[in-house]
Amino acid sequence: MLVEAILEGLGLVENDSFDHFKEFEDGSQLIVANYYPSCPEPDLTLGMPPHSDYGFLTLLLQDQEVKGLQIQHDGRWVTVEPIPNSFVVNVGDHLEIFSNGRYKSVIHRVLVNPLKPRISIASLHSLPFNSMIRPSPKLVSDASPRLYKDTDFASFIEYMASHEHKNKNFLESRRLT
Ligand SMILES: O=C(O)CCC(=O)C(=O)O
Ligand SMILES: [Fe+2]
User: Fold this and answer.
1) 28-36 and 88-91: which strand pairing?
2) How far apart are CA 147 and CA 135, in angstroms?
3) Residues 72-83: what's their mean pLDDT?
């Protein structure tokens, strides 16, 4: 549903939607359970450092009681208040690449709480692990040149094993300019 709406919003439904839908239906899902112990000195550390998610979309179930997730917006960190019975939906690197920059992968981090531990569950969705992710050809033109290199899981592993990740994030490593 979400992916359909996004493809429609990008103007791709009438053109090559069937190929895309099929690939997404056969796509990958990675579930991550995060546990952040309480920390007596929360100003000295982070639960999770700033990053963007590898994948197309992340559905995140936040702890209902203990906040901690922050997104970077206009150069500031903004706390994402937990909303009962709802998922936070994050745009990941693959959607930024696929949409040739029309959607922006969101940088986020997690603070720790001085008194209570926090739990979150993230479900990362993308194309199959062996698929190549590239800007949709329909979104590349003279007016909107291709911004990202081809990207697959192997390139992510290569990046993680390299020294590059100390200097820039994965998405930056895929930029052509
Ligand atoms: O714990 C959270 O709220 C966010 C977790 C997260 O960013 C991740 O698992 O990638
Ligand atoms: Fe994340």
Assistant:
1) unpaired
2) 8
3) 96
Note the pLDDT tens digit of each residue in 107-126.
Answer: 999 999 999 999 999 999 99
Distance CA 133, CA 120 (A): 27
Catalogue the E-assigned strands of the chain: 28-36, 48-51, 57-61, 69-73, 76-79, 88-91, 108-110, 118-126
Residues in contact with ligand 1 (CB, 6 Å cut-off): 32, 34, 48, 53, 60, 62, 69, 108, 110, 120, 122
**Ligand 1 probe mutation, 35, 48, 58, 113, most atoms within 8 A of CB:** 48
> Counting atoms of ligand 1 from 1, which one is nearest the CA of 122?
9
pTM of structure: 0.89
Q: What architecture (CATH level 2) is domain 28-174?
A: Sandwich (2.60)
Q: State the pairing for strand pair 57-61/88-91.
A: antiparallel
CA distances from 172 to 90, 109, 175 (A): 18, 17, 5
Q: Where are the domains of the chain?
A: 28-174
